[in-house]
Amino acid sequence: MYTISPRLAPTIVVAGTRSTALSHLLAAANAPTLAAGAFTILVLILGLIFVAAAAQAIRDLAGVLAQLVRSAVTIGSALVVIAVVAVATIALLIHH
C-alpha cells in the first residue's frame, strides 16, 4: 500500500484530466461539423425564401402579362372592326 499511495493521487488527477480533455477534444472536433450543419441549414432556409419570393414575382409578372395580352386582343379587335367599317363605308361611297 505504501508504494501505491504516492502515485494514486497523480494518477487520479491525470485520469480526470484526460477524460475532460478528451471530452473537450471531442466537443472541439464536433464544433466545425455543427457549425457547418447550421450554416447549411441557414443557406437552405435562405434559398427557400429566395425561391418563394421569385415564385411570387413570377406569378405577379404572369398576371401583368395576361392583362397585357387581354388589352392587346381588345385593341386588335377594335382595329379589325374599324377596318371593316372603313372598307364597307368606302365601298358604299364608291358605288353611289
Describe the structure.
The chain is an all-alpha fold. It has 1 helix and no strands. The chain has one helix at 5-95.
Structural class: mainly alpha
Q: Identify low-pLDDT runs.
A: none
Whole-number radius of gyration? 41 Å
The number of helical elements comes to: 1
The overall pLDDT average reads 81
Helix content: over 70%
N/C terminus separation: 140 Å
The amount of beta strand, in percent, is under 5%
**Overall number of strands:** 0
Reported for the largest beta sheet, the result is: none
- The topology string of helices and strands comes to H
- The coarse overall form would be rod-shaped
The protein's oligomeric status is single chain
Characteristics of this structure?
rod-shaped, 96 residues, 1 helix
